[in-house]
Amino acid sequence: MKASSLLPALLLLPALTYAQKPYTVTGKIGNLNAPSKIYLMQVIDGKMESDSVVLSNGSFAFKGKVKDPVKAYLRIAYDPGEAKPRVHAKTIFLEPGTINITSSDSLNHAVVKGRQANADNVALEALLKPVNDKQTALMAEYYAKPQKEREDSAFQVAFGEKYKAVGEERKALSQQFIDAHPKSYLSLDLLKSIAGAKPEPEVIEPIFAKLGSKVRKSADGVKFAERLNRVKALAVGKQAPEFTQNDPDGKPVSLASFRGKYVLIDFWASWCGPCRAENPHVVKAYNEFKDKNFTILGVSLDQPNARDKWLKAISDDKLMWTHVSDLKYWQNEVAQLYAINSIPQNFLLDPSGKIIARDLRGDALHKKLAELLP
């Protein structure tokens, strides 16, 4: 490479280095010693990464660099060798400067002191404590019931309504926090939680627009805005994004090759319990309508080195249609293109490649196909 071609890249290095600022997480949890370990965990590029140290008289320290505040978790395994290891966890935000965590006994009672993001998190935890207590009590009530009663459909409906009500209360409090703290990075985190795996841009975008400029322009803010744009591009009536991915034999399969047929793009994985439970409904629809200009293209989010599990699930569940995967788990390139954050999910396309329905589960898929292909 010529020296002149290196110059632009080298000029970027100071800016990139400057963008990252150091943080230190220090603390003391009682007088714990080995074998007790504390872990610092955070999501990096879609994967949970962790660092750990052995506690020495309760003390620990972690160091690193961040540009913007990043959500992380401290987790203590008091004695990893126990039959049922006691584990406590605490949410913190990694931010430039020093974050200090102290407790006389356990991580559950730890006091966190840091800069603005951690101060906001303390305020948020206080705001959400009543609803968190309700949820804890509700789950205790659930598990106190005999297994037979928990399996009763009437009990499940009643419990589901209670759980939903707690969720709505949490959502309202989260919205309250966002309204009062538009410049807080926690507000973006809460908005992502409210949006869920299938955000509604018409609801979420106006809230996002009210967040502070620094929050919206942060790395997470930019990613979230891009995700909302992808979701909008996947609405019913839009043309489905084109893609090509390899089948189990390594042969490329393009979505365009299905043009002229109704096709269901089915996102699933061998490790996904709800997906496997849904598969009999999909198989039934396929067998009934496969001779009526309908087919399925399965996109698997199976993990690296899990090709055998993927193929076994295809065989065991009798999924006799075309399948593709790059075995990149949640980083599957087609899943990224289609803004997939949870599975199962599906998109039904008409013969021109336009999205005409999505997330057809159970009998809904059969009913829709019966309307289209009598």
Overview features:
globular, 15 strands, 374 residues, disordered N terminus, 42% helix, 3 domains, five-stranded mixed beta sheet, four-stranded mixed beta sheet, alpha+beta, Glutaredoxin, Immunoglobulin-like
Structural domain count: 3
CATH architecture of the largest domain: 3-Layer(aba) Sandwich
The CATH class assignment of the largest domain is Alpha Beta
Radius of gyration over all CA atoms, rounded: 24 Å
- The oligomeric state of the chains shown is single chain
- The H-and-E topology, N to C, reads as HEEEEEEEEHHHHHHHEEEHEHEHEEH
How many DSSP H or I helices?
Answer: 12
- Judging from the principal axes of the Cα atoms, what is the shape? globular
Helix content: 40-55%
What's the count of strands?
Answer: 15
Give a written overview of the molecule.
The protein has 374 residues and is of the alpha+beta class. It is built from twelve helices and 15 strands. The strands form four sheets. The protein has a five-stranded mixed sheet, covered by helices on one side. Strands 4-1-7-8 form a four-stranded mixed sheet. Strand 14 (345-349) and strand 15 form a beta hairpin. The longest helix is centred in the middle third of the chain and has 29 residues, at 116-144. The chain is globular, with a radius of gyration of 24 Å.
Short description:
A five-stranded mixed sheet has the order 13-12-11-14-15, covered by helices on one side. The protein has twelve helices and 15 strands.
